[in-house]
Structure prediction request, 266 residues.
Amino acid sequence: MKKLFAAVFLTMLLAGCSHDDGVTPIETNQMDCKVLKYQQFIILDSILYRKALVYESGKIVQRLNYGDNTSGSAGLGGWGLISTDHIFYNSDNTVSKIEYSPNRFDLFYYTNGNYYPIKRAFITISDDGYVSKYSENISYDETGRILKTFYYNDDPNYPYLNETTTDYTYDSSSNLAKTVEVYQTRSMTKTTTVTYSNYDAHKNPFRNINVPFIENRHVQFSKNNYKKISSVTTYQNDETSFYEVENGAFTYNEFDYPIIAEYNCH
Prediction:
């Protein structure tokens, strides 16, 4: 039986009055802006940034993750720092490791002369010392944009089927148009197609974040900023779910970046 969830339309952070939202880029100063704080997930009516980047010598060395840290029956806490990711580099300034906690981290591998990693290993170490590993093979097109990933269980002690293949498609304007993700286990197959559209003609600030954060792949390689996202997920039993989010008009700073983040422009 098919189930179709109604489309949900949300208005993005800081929607409203803006510069021209058409297809012609505005005249700007030729300067780059470093992202200092941003929202990983845009939440309706929220103006709180959920991610902050810490730089040293021009490199990102930490990512601070904020959110609701309320805990306990008394509900103590509130909005604040939840965790800190640490970024480590090779001698050629490529990222070697992103440490989410001492026992949970990503390792990255490269070919000579390739700035982007061709393989990622996600390692988790349990309290009793057991090490579990998932690996991901990553390929790129001739312009350096991510093209395909294959994420799989790489634990020889538990050789069960658990893998995800994702294909990336770009439009003629060098923006991400679609991703198709196929997730498979022994008991199920799930296919999720995500479409990105309604791009503006302004600079994408996430292209300046030169750390391979997995959560940024849908924005890292696009030239501009999408304002609509649609997702359809189909299961092997023919059940389907759907959602759609349409963003309002962005405002832009004097350097042509959307004000969906806090910047240091120079």
About this structure: The chain has one domain: 33-265. Confidence is low (pLDDT under 50) at residues 1-30, 42-46. The chain has one helix and 15 strands.
